[in-house]
Amino acid sequence: VPLKSLARPRLSSVTMTEKETNTHDGLIPGLPEDMAKICLALVPRRHFPSMGAVSRRWMSFIGSREFSAVRKEVGKIEGLVYVLAAEAGEKGCRWEVLGERKNSAIPPMPGLTKAGFGVVVLYGKLYVIAGYAAVHGKDSVSDEVYQYDARLNRWGALAKMNVARRDFACAKVDGTIYAAGGFGSSDNSLSSVEAYDPQQNRWTLIDGLRRPRWGCFASGLNSKLYIMGGRSSFTIGNSRFVDVYDPGRSRWEEIKRGCVMVTSHAVVGESFSWKKIPVPLTGSSSTRFCLGARGGKLLLLSQEEEGGYWTMTYDPAAAPGSEWGTSELK
C-alpha cells in the first residue's frame, strides 16, 4: 500500500478530550491497528516529539519496545551516536548527537554534572547511571539514574540504585541492566552487583563479585555478563581475570584470559577470542581516542583537537586489508 505523508496537527490547537485519550480508540481512526502502527513508524524521527503531544496513546506507543520493532520491520531504524562533550571555556559539558552533516545538542540532563558514571543504551533509550560530582569542593558519589528518550527528546529520573557508586562496570543483558563493583560513598571498593528491570523501574541486589573490583568495564554477550579490565582486590596491578555472570543460572564464573588495561570499549558483533588490531592513525600519534559503535562498525573518535584527524571506522566483515575507513562523524 503506497502511504503518503501524514498530516501533522498544530500543537497549539491540540486539545486532548476524554474520547481521544480512551485506550479503546484506535491509534488512527478508520485504520486497522496494524496499519496505523506502520503509518506512525514511517514518520521521520524529527517529528516524534510533536507526535507524542497528540495523545497519550501516541506517546505511549512511540516510547514502547513495539514501536522499535515496527520501525525495524519497515526499515526505518537509525543508528545514532551520543557523546558527552566538553564545551569551550568553563561552560561545562553537554550531551550531543553526532550527525553526518551537523552535530546537535539535546536538552540538559537533570542533576549535577558527573564523572565516573555508567552509560547503557536499551530499547532506544539512553541510561546515565550513578557517578560522582564535586559539591563544595568535595566529591559526592551518586545513586541517581536518568533516562533520555531519543524519540520524545526528553529526560526523566528513574528509581535510584541500592548502592551509590562510581567507576563501576555496567552493561545490558537481554533487556536487564547490570551495575557491578566500583567505589562507594566512603571511597570503599565494592563487590556488590545490582540489576535494573526497566519494566518494573526497580534495582535489585544480586550475588556479588568474588572480590571488590573498580575501573573495569562490562559487556553483554550471548546472554551473559562479562566484566573485564580495571583492578581488583588481592591482585597486583590491572586484573586479567574475567568475571562472567549467567542470569539463567544466577551464577558467577571466572576465567583468566582477559585484557589488562582498558581506557575505552565498544561491542561490535560476536566474537569469543581476542586479537590485536593495528590502528592506522591519521594525524598525531599522541591523540587520545575513545571507541563507539554504529551500524555494525567500530568508531574510533579523537578526544583532542588535531588538524589532520578523521574519525575512523573499522568493519569486521570487510575483506582483509580494507577493514579501516573514515567517517564524517566528528
TrEMBL record:
It comes from the Eukaryota. InterPro entries: Kelch-typ_b-propeller (IPR015915), Kelch_1 (IPR006652), Kelch_2 (IPR011498). The keyword Nucleotide-binding does not apply. The keyword Secreted does not apply. SMART domains: Kelch. Keywords: Kelch repeat, Repeat. SUPFAM superfamilies: Kelch motif. PANTHER family: OS02G0202900 PROTEIN, OS04G0380300 PROTEIN. This is F-box domain-containing protein. It comes from Aegilops tauschii subsp. strangulata (Goatgrass).
